[in-house]
Every structure is written in structure tokens, then in C-alpha cells.
Design brief:
The complex is a heterotrimer of chains A (about 325), B (about 600) and C (about 525). Chain A is about 20% helix and about 15% strand. Chain A has about 325 residues and is α+β, with helices and mostly antiparallel strands. Chain C folds into 3 domains: about 170 residues, Dimethylsulfoxide Reductase, domain 2; about 190 residues, Rossmann fold, CATH 3.40.50.740; about 110 residues, Barwin-like endoglucanases. Chain C is globular, with a radius of gyration of 24 Å. The chains are: A alpha+beta (about 325), B alpha/beta (about 600), C alpha/beta (about 525).
């Protein structure tokens, strides 16, 4: 049902009604940078890194959510597009810890010539971000670039929240809420630069509605949400993706048949994900599927390897975030 | 979170929502609760829109919203607590921390800061019951203070000294000043003709002064003919975007979806703007009549009137007006014998400039955070609750009775061909007689300033702010500019919301620019990266310059451009324009060259 | 159903259906990812009825929760059926075309007036009526259930009562409509499909059918027993009578999972010879003469499992098993070799390919396809066959290419363990989100959600007993007693108590449960125990 024809950077392409500009770009093999977009979530078009230029529109338009129109002419590489993408990346890199983003994002940042240092040295971490109120802020002298840097939240055995890495892409909120889990343990709170992902009254996860499905971890693009095991291994300098295998299998618990990708390092499961393109899970799991694997690697009864020593630390509910 | 509400909090919630219908929602245990519960997803969808009004009910009664109160609201409305917390925290006037029973929000925005606002704030520095506030829409009588009083109605007062504020905080009664307009009595007035002359609390007086003749005529004409007149009038929206009203109305009226909504945008928050407040305080029935005509014309049975929280006096007058018109059969199931149904609900904002953006406003009504939506789809296609929606601002709407009575063609003859009808301007700052002025489109800026008694202060113009913080500053060379949409466009200016704020040549424009930068950072919803971070970086850059460092023009331009190009909504698009204009006028020392 | 044991629908169908009856299922906790699909349906406009004595976290999402009496499911189903028939909302064309036995069925539900149904179930008649009308009038509708239906002494009748409703309204065999039992274990479907049922060979072929049996005998070169075997409850009976003296248990923990577990343990202890093959040292393994340490099927070996939507999917080896543990296939093959009937050590794929040659339902499912297509749903008859989204579409074909689907009369009988003055509280059992069955697997990880097993009661019952939250009480049934702390749970009404089954080492709820079991399925009535609660000192 290919019945809308448009041009992307001068090349004609036909896509079905309802397709987005991003879909059309992908048909042409011209993938666009994205941060807040994910195939299994409703587009929120907030990061603006996928913007393209479409004549007739005063401003740039987000390719991830803009439906195509007949005869549309899309420019993905105009001066304005390059400028906006570069600035979005710079804004994020100057205010958020992006050290764990995927390589693709790093490549785009290099391509657009990002220079996050030109806003000045980054401000120190602060403790009060969760208490900030809408409509008021403390104005500094501009000598440092304000950031979202803050202590890591470690309040349970299964996953941590390192909001210094949060770009506010809303993915975790969508996965926790209406796009998958329908738990709504977290939402965006606050406003403006002080907007943040939060439980009600910033209560700890164990007091919140959280059911520890980890679907927020599954969609987080920056490592702000992370398995406790990965967090501990990273702190210990032992996280080694090159040394990991990823094996697809089926969850051992109930009869729904969820696909699991087991990430294994040194014969230990260190992380569990699920394929986004599988019809059963769409990438989402429950607490048992994502975290309930420990019984195949009972750490106490077997010969203890170096990795076990670190993984043991992950079994303490909370710890000093400094590591 | 297991915190429970106090009896007073529960009473505040129940007072607004009525008593809970089952034990599941926090009510008394009934036998059927053991075997039956209704609720679920659909019920939660239906109830969600009550969250902001219910939060207000608690905030009004108790002074803040505790975890227990929030939990109870969530239990009643089937809203997850994290979501409710995210909604509550979006609004500056809802407090999620305990605070004094009386709180003063003192305007230190562009008009008030140098007319006493800053001084009062510095006098009261350190008090937990005093906060700086963005523009309160009282620029003609600055400085203004907005009081929140637990257990009593909010109110706004214009003050002359700090003691007045302290007295109110200690329990005194603030004085509310009725709306007036400098041109009162001028027979040429159309939109302002009743203000100051007709009792705004009396439907009878309004009718005696010609009110509701337009509705009667509109019913006689029928919806199609009213639509034709509106189109013929060529009326363009007065909220800032200047979109032709007839096109919006027609799109909704012709929609195949029959459940439609009308919204009156009374969230007038653009710094320097107060015309809508003056209309609502001075002639509230006119707005109700206008909305009713609009509702019948587009086939909506419900209209929402979304008014900013800082306008409590206007809100109470509108509530009174709605009540009286309902009693008289001018609202309700059979509007004035037309056989058609239309009614109006008032929704109060919570202290968020962004909610003046039409899609943010819709999200706010729906009980979500006031974050703008990406367009398309436009409100006429999928607006409030996903239904076709006409949203017009107050000034735009009150032209409707004029058009109906005079006819679209006659109305179109007022002003210029592209800018038809009367226009209201908000004059403030260094002019002799600040206030709302009604003129015909086409008058020059110079003539308008003269109408307001000319420039005061040093007597020499430093710059004039047009269109508010989202507009720009112009110099004396713009005095000959005709005040029309096209005239402004030709000179790369904007009329915006009709702000004309005059600053003399002794004004500290660096300070003013920083206040504007602060305003946009504070009011950014935080949703999109360009605006969320851009407004911070802009403010930091200005701070560096005001601290003595060289002006970083390239960086400023880069920041401004991405906000203009890639932000979701108008807030980001315009967050740098006023500051850019200050630079271009050379008003910031060392910022040029 | 109708000859094959599998849910008729695919998960995706619930996303666009119009009415969902979630019956005896707390899917949000027991089958969370199925609930994701269900919630998509709700968000797309489906009306959700939750039928469960407890207002569970699943029921919170329902438009209407119906908190029926424990064990009154047939009463409700029969009443719904009568209301549908009385109101003329049954699908006459479908009934005439594709079913048999309607008249007798209609007669059998005739006594189930709304009033009688209301008396037995405890539900308001008006709500039963509304459910009946919404279900019957829906364009598409599904009935989803789990153990709340099957862990009763009349489990099979419970299921048949629900099947009757689907036949009555034509809500089966069409996209979006059907019968959806969600399986409790990752391969309970596959186990049955592979012939791990007393009366079936792989692919649901009857043991007692000589033609089916002949295929297997020809390939294996050995006769196959011609009589159906015993299900678990019958085995326990046979152990009691001494008919069974040796038992080989693979991946099951009957010492803790059976109703009246102390009795089950007594029987296991009395065996002459017990072999247990398991991945962990379970309580059953502790009683064994021989233990075969096994590799974990899902992470340490290769093979397949089958989900509740009949999807056969690959499991793969990601870890080396600990110590000397071997995979099940190697253990069984080795055992065969030592018994002098060795067949070598085939790979999992070789075994699978043999199965494909014998089971037409699986014939088209090569390992390659299973990997490339994200699993396949049976039946899948050949390598070109795409697999089957929903079953029984042929009920709508004209002429009907099969036997018509039968209605069954489903007489209601109350739970065996009757409430009385001495045992006035109805105790029901169930699962929690973060834990699983007897906790052998789920006990391995630290869950922030986990709380100690407690007797959960309505706050008002606790007040009547004068017991505070956290206080330890004695729970007594006709068979045994245990001590447990009390926890208040608002999802329970007065007279109803709940315990989870996950920590039998601490609180063995199956000391209390009754071993009355369904003669057809062999499932015991875990869901309905009569108890009293006594304060302790």
C-alpha cells in the first residue's frame, strides 16, 4: 500500500499512508539520529535531534513523528538541520554525562562537530535537584555551565538510577506507564531545566509503585538506569562487553514464553534484555524474567570467582553511591 | 507511599469531588464493596481532568498539598501518585511542601521591577512567605502582589510600600481595585464600551447596555450564517499568532466528529499584557456571550474557560456571570430557546506561562503536565481530549458580538484590509496614563504613545517593548510604524499580544535582559532539549556579560538559532528575540562590535 | 479444547478485542507480559471484567470487578449462559452450524436464574446480567483464565463451563475471539504437546489409538504401552495402595507442591526407590535414593519450549552447568544405555527432528525456522506452513469440515472443603509477581518486593479476632495447622484469607490444603480450603 511519494534529499521514495519521515528515510537507508525515539514506544519527539527541514514549515520538524505528505520535500542535511542537531548534542553533552551512549550517537556528535566545552566548565554535582520547585531557580554568574550532575540513587538490589546521565527522553516513563508496564511508578516532575524523572515525592523505589520489571532499564539510551550487577562491575573496573556473549533463550518461569537475551561474562549472567522486535515481549519483561536468573549461578555454593565477589556486592539493598 | 490525608485535606477533596462512592475510593464500607468494584482504565481516563482543580481545592484550603492529600486525590481519581506529583510540581502556585498559611508573590517582572517590585522584595528578603513572581498582569498599576491565603480566596493587590505587604501576610485584608480604562466614556469604543460604566456583576445591567442582542441575532441567523459573517470579518486572532478566526471555526464546524470543544484562552501571562484581565473584570458577561455564540456556531456543547490563577477577581466575576446566565437560560440545555445546548466550565491555571500555549493548555485541562504538543495535528483536527477544538483568546472572542451585530463586511471595514477591527493595546512603563487602549488598526506607535499621555521618566525613549517578553524592543525610529499585522511584519517587528511598554533612556537594559532570560528559563516546560537547556545557556551567557566579560555573539546566535528552529513551541521560538533586539539596539554595553 | 489442549488465540488478538473476561487469573502478577497485551486491548477500548474472589492488582484495571464466592465459577457461568439464552443473545446460526448438544445444555442451565446465580455467587444480579449482555453482544470477546479455574476439584467442569459460553456466543475460531488459558510454567504447554500426559503421545495423539501408536512403534522398533498411564494424583493414590513402589521425578517438587503436602511426603518416604533429577537439591531430592544433577533447561542446554499461544521457541545454552550436572537428554540417554537399550546420545535438534516426523502439528518447525521466525505456533504442518494464529477457524467453514463442537452440561458443586462453624474462613492460595511456585527458582534472587509469607486477611476479620498486623496466628484446617504472621490486605473481603505458595520452607501452606482432586485433570483443589484462625498465646 505504498501510496505517498515524497523526496528525501532529492531522492524520491514511496511509503504507506501514516508512515513518518523517519520511516521514509530508513527505506532509503538514510537513518537519522534519534535519542528519544524507539520502535516499541509512542514517539514523544522531545529530543529534537532527528529534526529535518521541510519547505513550507517555519521551523524544523521532528522526523520521528511527522507523518509524510504527498510531494513533501525533506532535507536531512541542510545548514539549519546540521546546526540544530549539533546544538542539541552540545546542550546535552554540556549538561549530562553522555559517556555511556551508543557508538552511533558518538559518531553523529563527531560528524556535527560538537564542542560541549564552549559553555564553560561543567558545574559540580548538587544534592538538591529533587527538591527544586517550578518557577524559581538560583542564578549563578555564568562561569560554569549548569548540569544535572547528582549522586547515584542506589536503593535496591536490582537496579540503580544515575540521573547525572539522564537526558529526559521520557522513554522510561513510557515503558513504566502506558506503552508497556502500566505501573506508573515514575513520571516527569518539576519544570524546565529542573524537570526530572521521579517517583512521588522522590520516595525510594521500594516505597513506590515500582514492580522492578526493569523495562525502564531496557529502553534507557544513556546508562542512567542500569542493572545493579553492571553498576558494580563498572565500579570495579570489570565490566567488559567485548568479553560477553549474548544468547537468546526463553524465560524459565511462567508460560507466556518471553524471549530473553542473556548477557554472559565469565560464565555469569550479568544482564538480561529482550528483543524489541519480538511479538511476545516487544522488548519488555517482568521482574522474574529480567532478574530471576540467580538460581542458576548460586554464588554461595560454588567455587567463587573474581566476578562473583563483585556480584555479591549487588545483593546489598543500598550502598554509598560513591562506590 | 502510604501517607494518609488529614480530615481537613479529605474534606477539601470531598468538597470539590463530592463524597467517595465506594470503600475502594476511600468512602464508608458498603456491603457491595466486598463483591463489586467499578473503575479501571476508562474511569481513570474520565476522572483525570479533575486533578488540577482538586489539587487547587487542597492547596486553597490547606495552603499546600501533602503526600497524604495527594494519595487521597489519587485514590479518588484513579491517578498514579507519581503522575499526580509530576502534575502538581509543574505549577509554581501549588506547593508540595508545607509553607506559611499566607504567601506573597511579588512581581519583579519587566514593568514592576523598577516601579517598586524589586525594592519590596529586597526589603523582605529571607522570608519564607515571600517569593518573586513573573508578570501578574497589573502593569498599568505596578507594583503588584499576588497573595495565596490558606482557607481564604487568593487575591491580587497593587501596593505602594513594603508595610502593606507585611500587613496582609500578618492577616490584614488586601484591597482589590475595580478595572478601569483611560478611555471610559469615549463613544467610539466598541470592545471597552461597558467597562467602568456597567456593573460587571449584573446580567440585568449588561442586557440593558445591549448585552445578549448578539446572541439573539446569532440564533436567528443560524450557525452557517454566523460562520459566514465571521469569515467576512477577516478577524485575526489577537493572542499573538494572528491566525484568521473564520478558518479555525469553519474547520471545526465542518468536522465529521460531532463531539467538539470550544476553549477560551484566558491564561494571559505574557509579561506586559493585561487587556484580557481588564475585559474579564470589567465586562465578564460579554465574554460569556461571545463564547456562547462561538459554541453554537461551531457545534460545541461545552466550552472551557481557562484562566490564569493570578486573576482571582476576574475568575469570581466570571463564575458569577456563568451562574446568572445559566439561571436565565442563556447557558444550558436550551440556550435562549435555540434548542441547542451549550455550557461553560472554568478551569484555573496553576502558575505556568507555558499553559498559554494552546496545546499545553489542553494538556493542562486534561490533567496532564502543561507540556505543549507537537503540531500537526492541529487543535481543529485533534485538540482537547483528541476532539476538534476551537481555541481563541479573550480579546479575539469579544469581537464576535460586534461582528454579529454589525455584520462581517462592516467589521472588515474597520482598520486596514489585512488587519480588521478594533485592537486593544496594553500601555505601560514610562507613559503618563498607562492602561488598556482601544484603537483602530493602523494608528502609528507614536500616536498610541501620545494617547497614553506621552513619555514620562526622563522624557526620552530608550526603547519600547512590543509584544511582551516574547516580542522585541524597538527604538524611536519605529514610532512611525503603523500598528497593523502587516505594518509590524514589514518592519520585522510584532504586535504579539498588544504590549507597548515604554522605557526611558535611563533604563538598565542589561538588568531587563537578564530578567527576561530568567523568565524564559523559569517558564520553560523542560520537555524539549533546545528550550530546556538553551534558556539556561542563554541566561548564563548574559550573566557572564553582565559580570564584565566580553559579549559572546556567535555563541548567543547559535543558542538562539536552535531554539528558534528546533523547539517544540512558541516559548522556545521566541525566548531569545527580545534579548537579540536589545543587543541590536546597542542597549547592552559592549555587546556590539 | 475440542480435541487439542491449547489456547485458541494469539496474544496479539487481545489487543483489539472488545470484551475481556479475565476469570480466575491475576495475570498482572502471574503473567505480566500477557497483561501488557491485555492492557493494550483495554487502552484500545476493550471492556474488562475481572472475575476473582480477590480484587487483585489485575482487577484494579477492570471496568468491573466481580468478587464471586470461591468455587462458584460454574454457577456464574451457567447463570450467564441462561441470561444470554433468555435474552435471545446466543448465536443461533453458529450453534446450529458448528455445535451439538445445545438443547440439553440449555435445559441444564435453565434453573440458573439471575436470582439463583446471585445467591450462589454472592454477586448482584444486575452485574451478572450486564456481564452476560456485554459478552454476548461483543463483536469480539475473549475468556482468559488460569489456576483460579483449574485448581478446583471440578477443574474440568469449570473449563467446560467457560467453553460453553464461547460456543453459545460464537466467540471462538475468529480473530480476536476465543478461549485463552494462560499456562503457569514455561513449558507446561510443550510438555503436554510432547506427550508428557498419561494418555497422549507427542502431538496430542492418543496412546490408546492403535494407528497413532503404530507410527511410533514402527520408528522406535519397540512396542509402546497401549493403555493410558496415571496422572500425578492417581500416582499418589497408587503409592498409598502399594501399587507404585518406585518413582522417577524429573524437575518437579511434589514434597512441597502437592496439596496435603505432609501426606505426600509420607508417601514419598514410603517408596522403595525414588530417583530425582533436578537442577537443585529440592525437598523431594532430599528424600531420594538417587539424585541426578541436571542442567537448567533454559540457560544451560539446547531445546524448545512451547508457550501459552502454542508458540514453539528455542532455548539455548548460555552457561556451562555447574559441577557434574548434565542436561536431561544426556541423563536419560545414559540411563537407557545402562539399561541396555541405548540409542546413543542424540543432540536436541536430532530429537526434535524425530518428533517432527511423528507429530504433524510440529512437522514444519525446523530449528532454522524457529530461529529465524521468532518461534512458530502449532499446528505447522510443513516447511511452507506459516503456523497458526488462532485455532478452530474451521468451525465457521461451510460445510463444516469436522465434528461439531460439543456443549457439555456443567453441574455446579461447591468446594469439597466446606465452611462450618469450626472452619469459617475460606483460604485461597496464589502467586505473587516476584516469586514462583515453591520458590526453588525465584528464591535465588533478592527481590525488593518480597515479603515473608503471611496469612493475608481482611482488616475487619483481624479486628474481629483481635489480631494486630504482624502478629503470629495459628491457621487450622481439617488436615493440619501452621503458624504464620498476619498481614492486612484490602483486596480481601471479610471471610476470605489468602496465602502465597512460594516459601514452603517457612510456611507450608499445603499442610492445610485439601487433596480432593479433579478426576479428569488430576489437579487438586488448592484454591478452596476451610480454615479457622486462632490467636497464639
Amino acid at each position: 500500500m505504498a501510496d505517498i511519494t515524497l523526496a528525501v534529499d532529492g531522492t524520491e521514495v514511496s511509503v504507506p499512508v501514516g508512515a513518518t519521515i523517519l520511516d521514509a528515510c530508513r527505506v532509503l537507508g538514510k537513518d537519522q539520529p534519534t535519542l528519544c525515539y524507539l520502535d516499541n514506544l509512542t514517539p514523544v519527539n522531545v529530543c529534537r535531534v532527528c529534526v529535518v527541514e521541510v519547505p513550507g514549515n517555519r521551523t524544523l520538524v521532528p522526523s520521528c513523528s511527522r507523518p509524510v505528505e504527498e510531494g513533501m520535500e525533506v532535507n536531512t542535511d541542510s545548514e539549519r538541520v546540521r546546526h540544530s542537531r549539533k546544538m542539541v548534542y552540545e546542550f546535552l553533552a554540556s549538561s549530562v554525562d553522555l559517556s555511556l551512549v551508543d557508538e552511533e550517537t558518538v559518531d553523529w556528535m563527531v560528524r556535527y562537530g560538537c564542542d560541549p566545552d564552549r559553555y564553560g566548565p561543567q558545574a559540580d554535582p548538587v544534592e538538591d535537584r529533587d527538591q527544586r520547585v517550578a518557577g524559581h531557580h538560583h542564578l549563578g554568574d555564568g562561569s560554569t555551565a549548569e548540569t544535572v550532575h547528582q549522586p547515584v540513587k542506589v536503593d535496591n538490589e536490582l537496579y540503580i538510577r544515575d540521573y547525572s546521565r539522564c537526558i529526559l527522553c521520557y522513554k522510561c516513563v513510557e515503558a513504566c506507564g502506558e506503552d508497556a508496564q502500566n505501573t506508573f511508578a515514575i513520571a516527569v516532575a518539576g519544570r524546565g531545566f529542573d524537570a526530572r524523572i521521579s517517583t512521588e515525592f522522590d520516595t525510594g523505589l521500594t516505597d513506590s509503585a515500582c514492580v522492578f520489571c526493569g523495562n525502564c532499564i531496557g529502553v534507557c539510551p544513556t546508562g542512567a538506569l542500569m542493572f545493579r550487577s553492571e553498576h558494580e562491575l563498572r565500579l570495579a573496573g570489570m565490566w567488559d562487553e567485548d568479553d560477553q556473549t549474548v544468547t537468546r533463550t526463553i524465560c524459565s518461569y511462567c508460560g507466556v514464553g518471553c524471549n530473553l537475551d542473556l548477557h554472559v561474562q565469565d560464565n555469569r549472567i550479568v544482564k538480561v534484555t529482550s528483543p524489541m522486535d519480538h511479538s511476545v515481549t516487544s522488548g519488555h519483561l517482568c521482574i522474574k524474567g529480567r532478574f530471576g536468573y540467580e538460581y542458576v549461578q548460586e554464588l554461595g555454593d560454588l567455587a567463587v570467582t573474581p566476578i562473583d565477589q563483585v556480584l555479591r556486592r549487588a545483593r546489598v539493598p543500598d550502598r554509598d553511591s560513591s562506590g | 507511599m502510604s501517607a494518609l490525608p488529614t480530615a481537613a485535606e479529605r474534606a477539601a477533596v470531598d468538597g470539590h469531588l463530592g463524597l467517595p462512592q465506594s470503600a475502594w475510593e476511600g468512602g464508608e464500607e458498603r456491603p457491595e464493596d466486598a463483591v463489586l468494584a467499578e473503575g479501571g482504565f476508562r474511569a481513570s481516563q474520565d476522572r483525570r481532568q479533575h486533578i488540577l482543580p482538586t489539587l487547587h481545592a487542597v492547596n486553597d484550603a490547606i495552603g499546600w498539598v501533602s503526600a497524604g492529600a495527594l494519595n487521597y486525590i489519587c485514590q479518588r481519581l484513579l491517578v498514579p501518585p507519581a503522575e499526580a506529583y509530576g502534575v502538581a510540581g509543574f505549577y509554581a502556585l501549588l506547593s508540595l511542601e508545607e509553607r506559611p498559611a499566607r504567601v506573597a508573590h511579588i512581581c519583579d517582572d519587566v514593568a514592576c521591577r523598577n516601579q517598586g517590585g524589586n525594592k519590596i522584595l529586597s526589603d523582605l528578603e529571607g522570608r519564607s512567605d515571600v517569593h518573586p513572581s513573573p508578570c501578574l498582569g497589573q502593569c498599568d498599576q505596578a507594583p503588584a502582589v499576588f497573595y495565596q491565603r490558606a482557607g481564604e480566596a487568593d487575591c491580587v493587590a497593587v501596593v505602594t510600600d513594603t508595610d502593606q505587604v507585611i500587613k496582609v501576610l500578618e492577616g490584614g485584608k488586601p484591597e482589590e481595585v475595580p478595572a478601569t480604562v483611560p478611555q471610559a466614556g469615549d463613544p467610539a469604543l466598541r470592545l471597552l464600551k461597558r467597562i467602568g460604566r456597567v456593573d460587571p456583576t449584573s446580567l440585568e445591567d449588561y442586557r440593558r447596555a445591549g448585552g445578549y442582542r448578539a446572541l439573539t441575532k446569532a440564533i436567528d441567523l443560524g450557525a452557517d450564517q454566523v460562520l459566514s459573517e465571521i469569515k467576512a470579518s477577516n478577524l485575526r486572532g489577537r493572542g499573538g499568532a494572528a491566525f484568521p478566526m473564520g478558518i479555525k471555526w469553519e474547520a471545526v464546524a465542518r468536522s465529521s466528529v460531532t463531539l467538539r470543544y470550544l476553549i477560551c484562552n484566558a491564561d494571559e501571562s505574557e509579561p506586559g499584557t493585561f487587556k484580557d484581565r481588564v475585559i474579564m473584570e470589567g465586562d465578564p458577561f460579554a465574554l460569556i456571550e461571545s463564547m456562547t455564540i462561538a459554541g453554537l456556531a461551531i457545534g460545541a456543547e461545552l466550552g472551557y474557560l481557562y484562566i490564569r490563577a493570578e486573576y482571582p477577581f476576574a475568575q469570581s466575576l466570571l463564575e458569577n456571570a456563568i451562574e446568572q446566565t445559566r439561571e436565565s437560560g442563556l447557558l444550558g440545555d436550551d440556550v435562549d430557546g435555540s434548542g441547542k445546548s451549550f455550557d461553560i466550565e472554568i478551569r484555573r491555571g496553576g502558575g505556568a506561562y507555558i499553559c498559554g500555549e494552546e496545546t499545553a493548555l489542553m494538556n493542562s485541562i486534561e490533567g496532564h503536565r502543561g507540556e505543549p504538543r507537537n503540531k500537526p495535528p492541529f487543535p481543529t483536527q485533534a485538540g482537547l481530549f483528541g476532539r476538534p477544538t476551537v481555541i481563541n483568546n479573550v480579546e479575539t472572542l469579544i469581537n464576535v458580538p460586534e461582528i454579529v451585530l454589525e455584520g462581517g463586511d462592516a467589521f472588515a471595514a474597520i482598520g486596514t484590509t489585512q488587519s480588521t477591527g478594533p485592537k486593544l493595546f496594553c500601555l505601560s512603563g514610562a507613559v503618563a496614563t498607562p492602561g488598556v487602549y482601544e484603537v483602530e488598526f493602523g494608528i502609528t506607535l507614536d500616536e498610541l504613545v501620545d494617547l497614553a499621555g506621552g513619555v514620562t521618566g526622563s522624557g526620552s525613549i530608550g526603547a519600547i517593548m512590543l509584544g511582551g517578553a516574547a516580542g522585541l524592543f524597538v527604538g524611536e525610529d519605529y514610532l512611525d510604524m503603523p500598528l497593523t499585522f502587516e505594518g509590524a511584519q514589514d518592519r520585522k517587528a510584532t504586535l504579539g499580544s498588544g504590549v507597548v511598554m515604554v522605557f526611558d533612556d535611563r533604563t538598565d537594559f542589561a538588568d531587563l535582559s537578564q530578567r527576561i532570560a530568567r523568565f524564559f528559563r523559569d517558564e520553560s516546560c523542560g520537555q524539549c532539549v533546545p528550550c530546556r537547556v538553551g534558556t539556561v545557556r542563554q541566561e548564563e551567557l548574559l550573566a557572564r556579560h553582565c559580570g564584565g566579560l566580553p559579549w559572546e555573539d556567535e555563541l548567543f546566535e547559535d543558542i538562539a538559532q536552535v531554539m528558534i528552529d528546533a523547539s517544540i513551541c512558541g516559548l522556545g521560538h521566541t525566548a531569545s528575540t527580545a534579548i537579540r533586539s536589545v543587543i541590536d539596539l546597542g542597549l547592552l554595553e559592549g555587546s556590539r562590535g | 479444547m475440542f480435541g487439542v489442549g491449547g489456547g485458541t488465540c494469539s496474544y496479539q488478538e487481545i489487543e483489539t478485542t472488545d470484551v475481556i473476561l479475565l476469570w480466575g487469573s491475576n495475570a498482572r502478577e502471574a503473567h505480566p507480559i500477557f497483561f501488557h497485551h491485555l492492557m493494550k486491548g483495554v487502552r484500545n477500548g476493550a471492556k474488562l471484567y475481572a472475575i476473582d474472589p480477590r480484587r487483585t492488582t489485575s482487577a484494579m484495571w477492570a471496568d468491573t470487578w466481580l468478587g464471586l464466592e470461591v468455587g462458584s465459577d460454574i454457577a456464574l457461568a451457567n447463570t450467564v449462559a441462561r441470561e444470554i439464552i433468555t435474552a435471545g443473545l446466543h448465536h443461533e446460526d453458529f450453534i446450529r452450524h458448528a455445535t451439538r448438544g445445545f438443547d440439553a445444555y440449555a435445559e441444564s442451565v435453565e434453573p440458573w436464574t439471575l436470582q439463583r446465580g446471585s445467591e450462589i455467587t454472592g454477586l448482584p444480579a444486575e452485574v451478572i446480567r450486564r456481564l452476560a449482555h456485554d459478552f454476548a453482544a461483543a463483536d469480539q470477546a475473549q475468556i482468559c483464565w488460569t489456576l483460579g479455574i483449574t485448581e478446583h476439584h471440578n477443574a474440568t467442569d469449570n473449563v467446560l463451563a467457560l467453553i460453553n459460553l464461547a460456543l453459545l456466543t460464537g466467540h471462538v475460531g475468529r480473530y480476536g475471539s476465543g478461549l485463552v488459558p494462560i499456562r503457569g510454567q514455561n513449558n507446561v504447554q510443550g510438555g503436554g504437546d510432547m506427550g508428557a500426559l498419561p494418555n497422549r503421545l507427542p502431538g496430542f495423539q492418543e496412546v490408546e489409538d492403535p494407528v497413532s501408536r503404530g507410527k511410533f512403534e514402527a520408528l522406535w522398533g519397540h512396542p509402546v504401552p497401549y493403555q493410558a498411564g496415571k496422572h500425578l494424583s492417581l500416582m499418589l493414590e497408587a503409592m498409598e495402595t502399594g501399587e507404585i513402589t518406585a518413582l522417577y521425578v524429573i524437575g518437579e517438587n511434589p514434597a512441597q507442591s502437592e496439596a496435603r503436602s505432609d501426606h505426600a511426603r509420607h508417601l514419598l518416604r514410603g517408596l522403595e526407590f525414588l530417583v530425582v533429577q533436578d537442577i537443585l537439591m529440592t525437598k523431594t531430592a532430599e528424600l531420594a535414593d538417587v539424585v541426578f544433577p541436571a542442567a537448567a533447561g533454559w540457560a544451560e542446554t539446547d531445546g524448545t519450549v512451547t508457550s501459552s499461544e502454542r508458540r514453539v521457541q528455542r532455548v539455548r545454552k548460555a552457561l556451562d552447568p555447574p559441577g557434574d550436572a548434565r542436561d536431561d537428554l544426556a541423563i536419560i540417554s545414559g540411563l537407557a544405555e545402562r539399561m541396555g537399550r541405548g540409542w546413543g546420545y542424540p543432540t536436541a535438534e536430532e530429537v526434535w527432528d524425530e518428533l517432527r516426523s511423528l507429530s504433524p502439528n510440529h512437522a514444519g518447525m525446523s530449528y532454522r525456522r524457529l530461529a529465524e521466525e521468532g518461534g512458530l505456533q502449532w499446528p505447522c504442518y510443513d516447511e511452507e506452513h506459516p503456523g497458526t494464529l488462532f485455532l478452530h477457524g474451521d468451525l465457521w467453514d461451510d460445510p463444516l469440515p469436522r465434528h461439531p463442537a460439543p456443549f457439555f452440561s456443567t453441574p455446579w458443586a461447591p468446594p469439597v472443603d466446606e465452611l462450618s462453624e469450626d472452619f469459617p474462613i475460606r483460604l485461597t492460595t496464589g502467586r505473587r509477581l516476584d516469586s514462583y511456585n515453591t520458590g526453588v527458582q525465584s528464591g535465588g534472587y533478592s527481590s525488593p518486593l518480597r515479603t515473608a509469607v503471611a496469612l493475608e486477611v481482611a482488616p475487619s476479620d483481624a479486628h474481629t479476632l483481635g489480631v494486630a498486623e504482624g502478629e503470629t496466628v495459628r491457621v487450622v484446617s481439617r488436615r493440619g495447622s501452621l503458624k504464620a504472621p498476619v498481614r492486612f490486605d484490602r483486596s480481601l473481603r471479610p471471610g476470605l484469607a489468602f496465602m502465597s505458595v512460594h516459601d514452603p520452607d517457612e510456611v507450608d501452606v499445603n499442610l492445610l490444603t485439601i487433596d480432593a482432586w479433579d478426576p479428569k485433570s488430576g489437579t487438586a483443589e488448592f484454591k478452596a480450603t476451610a480454615v479457622r484462625i486462632e490467636p497464639v498465646g
